[in-house]
Amino acid sequence: MVATTKTKSAPKVHARTKDKSAFAPNYLVVCWNDPINLMEYVTHVFQRVFGWDEAKARHHMLEVHHQGRSVVACEGLEKAEHYAHTLQKYTLHATLEKADV
User: Fold this and answer.
1) Strand order across the 69-75 sheet
2) What are residue 17's phi and psi, to 5 degrees?
3) What is the pLDDT of residue 38?
4) Is the backbone of residue 91 left (phi > 0), alpha (psi -120 to 50) or beta?
């Protein structure tokens, strides 16, 4: 009699595929002009929150000042909310908008 050994086959692994749009940055963080905050303060906040150099922070501050708004980030929902709330803590007017994908 020949002994046979049964070997267990490896469990089947099903790769989960998610739509790439689930990871895509699809929310805009918009900073709006207000009559309260000084331009230097807004520049400082952008540097602190986003880690930008002074030139980039100043560019966005001037965009807010002259055009009334600036898109300061395009992220997934959680990160966009984080940025908007952080800007609001610094008394800046910031909102979220759904990005056109």
Assistant:
1) 69-75, 27-32, 93-98
2) -110, 125
3) 96
4) left
At how many degrees (to 10) do helices 39-50 and 77-89 cross?
A: 140
Distance from C-alpha of 61 to C-alpha of 66, rounded to nearest angstrom: 9
pLDDT tens column, 85-97: 999 999 999 999 9
d(CA 43, CA 8): 63
Structure tokens at 72: 């300061």
- The letter for the amino acid at 49 is V
DSSP code of 16? P
CATH 3.30.1390.10 fits domain 33-98: yes
Helix (H/G/I), strand (E/B), else coil: 71: strand
**Domain spans, the chain:** 33-98
